[in-house]
Write a structure and sequence with these properties.
The chain has 580 residues and is of the alpha/beta class. It has 25 helices and 17 strands. The protein starts with a helix and ends with a helix. The protein binds 2'-deoxyguanosine-5'-triphosphate, calcium ion (CA) (2 copies) and zinc ion. This is DNA polymerase beta.
Length: 580
C-alpha cells in the first residue's frame, strides 16, 4: 500500500468516527481530502517534509488536516484520532461493511448496546435487541441480520478492480524472468469475472525450477504458501497468486484448460469426444485408433496444444475470447461462425457519467474535463447527483444548483479541448419517479437516472417507468448491485431492454469495480433485445476514468460489439442519440 493510501484510510477512519459522534460537515471534508490524497500523483510523505504548506498543495486539504498529516509522519500517530478511537472502541471497518450500517448507526448502537464487533452485532440482531433502539425498528434489524451474512462472505472473493492490477504486475514480473518463454493470466481473472477467488498465472518454460525460484523470490510477495516442482502459490497483500509452469509445446493446452470456465471446458470436451478426440491440459489427441483413451494423459496422436488456437482449431472452432467462455452459447455460436466482434477499450470515445465537487466528487469541472481530455476522450458528461432519497449529508444538487452548474459547464466547455455535456444523475424513486423537475431535465444535455434506495425485490416496473420518462437518456447502474455487499434489484431484463430499445435509453454498464452493473449475464440478453449500452465509469476523480476497462470487459462478457455502445459513437452520434 502506498503511503498516500495509508494516510487516506486514516483520514477516512477519522471521518467515520466524527460522523459516529454526530459531528457535522467535518466528516465530508476529511473524506474529500482522503480521496484527493489517495489519487494525488506525488507522495504525500515528501510533501509533509515541507510541513503543512507542502501538504496543503493537495486539493481539499486545509490547515487542520494538513497538520494531522504532518503529525502522522513526524510521530507515527495522530493524537486526536487516538482519542476518538478510545471514545468509540469499535471495529468500524467490519461494522460498516454491513449494508445499511453507517458510522452513525455504529455510534448509536455502541451508546445503546455497547456493540463493538460483528459478532456482537449479530448477537444483538438475533436476540431482537436492535429493534428497540431509537431509530432502528424491526425492518432495519432484519436487514442487518441479512447484511451480516453478506459482510462475512465479502472478503472471500476480491473485486476485479483490486485483483487485476496485481495480475498485471505478476504478468509483468514473470515476463522479465529469462526462463519464462510465455506468460499469460488464466482462470477468472483472464475471463474478467467481477470477483476473483485467486489470481492464476501460467508460464511456458523448459526450466520450471528457475521460474518457480524467481517467482518465490519476488519482492512483492508477503508469504510463499507453497513452492513445488512446477507450481507455486504466493500471498501478495490480500491476494493468493497461483503459478503453474508447463512445457512450451503444451502451453496452449494448459492455458485453455486453466482459463476455464469449467462449464465451457465441459462443453468443449463433449465436442471433442464426438469427434474421437481427447482434450486435456497437455494437448488434444486423436484417439480413434486407441483401444483405451483413458490409459494415460498423452495417448493417441497429438493434433495440437502448443497454442490455444490449435486447441479450438482441432475442434473446428475459431479461437473464443476468454470473456465469452461462460457456457452462454459461445461454443454453438463459434461453430456457426457467429461469434460477436467484441468491443475494445480503444473503441470508447467518452464518458457519460462522472461527478465533480459540485456533489460528492473530488475535483472541479475543469479538472475532470482536462483529465478526460488527457485520457484521450472526445467528450465527457458531467452528471452530479441531484438531491433525493439516498443522498446523505446534503451532497445532491437542487434544481437551482443544477441551473447554475449548467452555466459553469458551458463556460468550461469553451475553454477545454474536449466536448462537455451538461448532465445530472437523478434518482429513480421506489415508484419509478425521477427526482428533478422536468423543466431542468429539458435544459440538460444528458440525464442519467439511477436507483439508490429501496434496492430489494423486483425492480422491473420501477426501472421501466424510469426508462419511459421522456427526458431520461441513460439508466445508471440499473440493479443497484454492490459486489460483496448487496444483490440489488431483480429485473426482467428482456422487458427492460425492450423498453430501453423503444425509448432510446441506454442501459449502463457501470465500470466502478464495486458495481460492474449490469454485468455480462444481463448485458447479453439486453444487447440481443436491441438495447444500446453505455460504458460509464461514474468517476469521482480523473484517476478513475481508467476504470473504463473493467466496464469494457464486463460488456464483452455480455457479447457487446462497438455498434451496441452509445459512447463508442463520435460526438455527433451521441448528440443525435440524445436528441440534441
Ligand atoms: P476463481 O479463482 O474462484 O475466481 O475462479 P477460477 O475460474 O479462476 O477457478 P480456479 O482458480 O479454481 O481454477 C482455474 C481454472 O482451472 C478454472 O477456471 C478451470 C480450471 N480448473 C480448475 N480445476 C478444475 C477441475 O477440477 N476441473 C476442470 N474441468 N477445470 C478445472
Ligand atoms: Ca482463479
Ligand atoms: Ca487457482
Ligand atoms: Zn454516479
Amino acid at each position: 500500500m502506498s503511503r498516500n493510501a495509508e494516510v487516506a484510510s486514516l483520514l477516512e477512519e477519522f471521518a467515520d468516527l466524527l460522523e459516529a459522534k454526530d459531528v457535522e460537515y467535518k466528516p465530508r471534508a476529511y473524506r474529500r481530502a482522503a480521496e484527493n490524497i489517495r489519487g494525488h500523483p506525488a507522495a504525500v510523505e515528501h510533501l509533509a517534509v515541507e510541513g503543512e504548506d507542502g501538504v496543503k498543495e493537495i486539493d481539499g486539504v486545509g490547515d487542520a488536516i494538513a497538520s494531522k498529516v504532518v503529525e502522522y509522519f513526524e510521530t507515527g500517530g495522530i493524537e486526536e484520532l487516538d482519542e476518538l478511537r478510545n471514545d468509540l472502541p469499535v471495529d468500524m471497518a467490519a461494522l460498516t461493511s454491513v449494508e445499511g450500517v453507517g458510522p452513525k448507526s455504529v455510534g448509536t448502537l455502541y451508546d445503546a448496546l455497547g456493540i463493538t464487533t460483528l459478532d456482537e452485532l449479530e448477537e444483538a440482531a438475533e436476540s431482537g435487541e436492535i429493534q428497540d433502539v431509537e431509530g432502528f425498528g424491526e425492518t432495519t434489524e432484519a436487514n442487518i441480520r441479512e447484511g451480516i451474512a453478506f459482510a462475512r462472505e465479502a472478503h472471500e472473493r476480491e473485486l476485479l478492480g483490486e485483483a487485476r492490477p496485481y495480475g498485471d504486475r505478476v504478468r509483468e514480473f514473470l515476463a522479465g524472468v529469462d526462463a519464462a518463454a510465455e506468460v499469460e493470466l488464466a482462470g477468472s481473472i483472464r475471463r474478467w469475472r467481477p470477483t476473483i477467488g485467486d489470481v492464476d498465472v501460467l508460464v511456458g518454460s523448459d526450466d520450471a525450477d528457475a521460474v518457480v525460484a524467481a517467482f518465490a523470490n519476488w519482492d512483492a510477495a508477503d508469504t510463499v504458501i507453497e513452492a513445488g516442482e512446477s507450481k507455486a502459490s504466493l500471498r501478495v497483500d490480500d491476494f493468493r497468486v497461483d503459478l503453474r509452469v508447463v512445457a512450451e509445446n503444451e502451453f496452449g493446452a494448459a492455458l485453455q484448460y486453466f482459463t476455464g470456465s469449467k462449464d465451457h471446458n465441459v462443453r468443449l470436451r463433449n465436442r471433442a469426444i464426438d469427434r474421437d478426440l481427447k482434450m486435456n491440459e497437455y494437448g488434444i489427441f486423436d484417439v480413434s485408433e486407441v483401444d483405451d483413451p483413458d490409459a494415460g494423459q498423452r495417448v493417441g496422436e497429438r493434433v495440437g496444444g502448443a497454442t490455444e488456437a490449435e486447441m479450438y482449431e482441432a475442434l473446428d472452432l475459431p479461437w473464443i475470447p476468454p470473456e465469452l467462455r461462460e457456457d452462454r452459447g459461445e461454443v454453438a455460436a463459434a461453430a456457426d461462425g457467429a461469434l460477436p466482434e467484441l468491443l475494445e477499450t480503444g473503441d470508447v470515445r467518452g464518458d457519460l457519467h462522472t461527478h465533480t465537487e459540485w456533489s460528492d466528487g473530488g475535483n472541479t469541472i475543469r479538472e475532470m474535463a482536462e483529465g478526460a481530455a488527457a485520457f484521450g476522450h472526445d467528450y465527457l458528461a458531467i452528471t452530479d447527483h441531484a438531491t433525493g432519497p439516498g443522498m446523505v449529508g446534503g451532497v445532491g444538487l437542487s434544481d437551482a444548483d443544477l441551473r447554475e452548474q449548467i452555466g459553469e459547464i458551458r463556460a468550461v466547455d469553451d475553454e477545454v479541448d474536449i466536448d462537455l455535456f451538461a448532465g445530472v444523475e437523478a434518482n429513480v424513486g421506489a415508484d419509478g419517479s425521477i427526482s428533478v423537475a422536468d423543466d431542468v431535465l429539458e435544459t440538460l444535455d444528458v440525464v442519467v437516472a439511477s436507483p439508490h434506495v429501496s434496492l430489494d425485490g423486483d425492480g422491473t416496473d420501477r426501472l421501466v417507468s424510469a426508462v419511459e420518462h421522456p427526458e431520461v437518456d441513460v439508466l445508471g447502474h440499473p440493479t443497484g448491485r454492490l459486489r460483496n455487499q448487496r444483490d440489488g434489484l431483480d429485473v426482467d431484463i428482456d422487458r427492460l431492454a425492450e423498453a430501453a430499445a423503444t425509448e432510446a435509453v441506454a442501459l449502463e454498464v457501470n465500470s466502478d469495480p464495486r458495481r460492474l452493473d449490469i454485468d455480462g449475464s444481463l448485458v447479453k440478453p439486453a444487447v440481443e433485445a436491441g438495447a444500446t449500452i453505455a460504458i460509464d465509469t461514474d468517476a469521482h476523480q480523473p484517476g478513475t476514468l481508467e476504470y473504463v476497462r473493467y466496464g469494457v470487459h464486463t460488456a464483452r462478457r455480455g457479447w457487446t460489439e462497438a455498434d451496441d455502445v452509445l459512447n463508442a459513437r463520435d460526438t455527433d452520434g451521441v448528440r443525435e442519440f440524445l436528441g440534441l
